Amino acid sequence: MLTLYDYWRSSAAYRVRIGLNLKGLKYETISVNLAGDEQFSEKYRKRNPQMRVPALETDRGLLTQSVAILDWLEAAHPEPSLVPSDAWAAAQVRAFALTIACDVHPLNNLSVLNRLKLEFSTNDDHVGEWYRHWIKAGFAALEHQAEQRGRTKFAFGDQPTLADVLLVPQMYNARRFKTDLAPFPHLLAWDEEARALPAFAKAAPEKHPDASKS
């Protein structure tokens, strides 16, 4: 049995929940309350020295980093595939996903936002502007690329890929921080299609058992 160390509002953990659901894999959840600083507890630090979520316990040990976890899921459970077999198409999918994972998300991580507040006395309004700036910068690049490719049901064709798995949680964060998404019609359309699928809907933060406790 796979065990996911999870937090209901973590977009990185949200990605892995989607990936596990798309692969049809059963897993148990251990909640790590980031709002309560449980990631810094001695118990969790011993399990995962990075002190972040998600982390996935497998029969071979612990995996960290959401994109690495999704990559392992793709290799260990190749159907349904989240990455095209064609090398060029696969690179495009990964480039889309990594724009979110490497360019947008790290600048808006909880640890960064907390440091802005604690070390630089940044107020909530300025933190919100910071957050929205980096989302809009990343989304603008992805939307421009989408315009070059034309309309598709999902980000890269008629089936969801790794790109959609990364996009949907980032769209959730964008809405949470009241980002104007009107300039990104392709992203909005793909997000709507993906969220309608059971694997995405089941993984949504509002469906998480811990959502009602917060």
Structure description:
This protein has 214 residues and is an alpha+beta fold. It has two domains: 2-80, 3-Layer(aba) Sandwich (Glutaredoxin); 87-200, Glutathione S-transferase Yfyf (Class Pi), Chain A, domain 2 (Up-down Bundle), CATH 1.20.1050. 54% of the residues lie in helices and 8% in strands. It contains nine helices and four strands; from the N terminus they run E-H-E-H-E-E-H-H-H-H-H-H-H. The chain has a four-stranded mixed β-sheet, covered by helices on one side. Strand 3 (55-58) and strand 4 form a beta hairpin. The protein is globular and about 50 Å long. The relative contact order is 0.14. The model has no long low-confidence stretch (mean pLDDT 95).
Q: Care to give the gist of this entry?
A:
With 214 residues, the chain is α+β, with helices and mostly antiparallel strands.
Low-pLDDT parts are: none
The domain tally reads 2
Q: CATH topology of the largest domain, anyone?
A: Glutathione S-transferase Yfyf (Class Pi), Chain A, domain 2
Care to count the β-strands? 4
What is the CATH domain class of the largest domain? Answer: Mainly Alpha
Strand order of the largest sheet: 2-1-3-4
Percent helix, as a range, is: 40-55%
The total count of helices amounts to 9
Q: What is the radius of gyration computed over CA atoms, rounded to a whole number of angstroms?
A: 17 Å
> What's the average pLDDT?
95
Span from first to last CA? 27 Å
Please summarize the sheet with the most strands.
4 strands, mixed
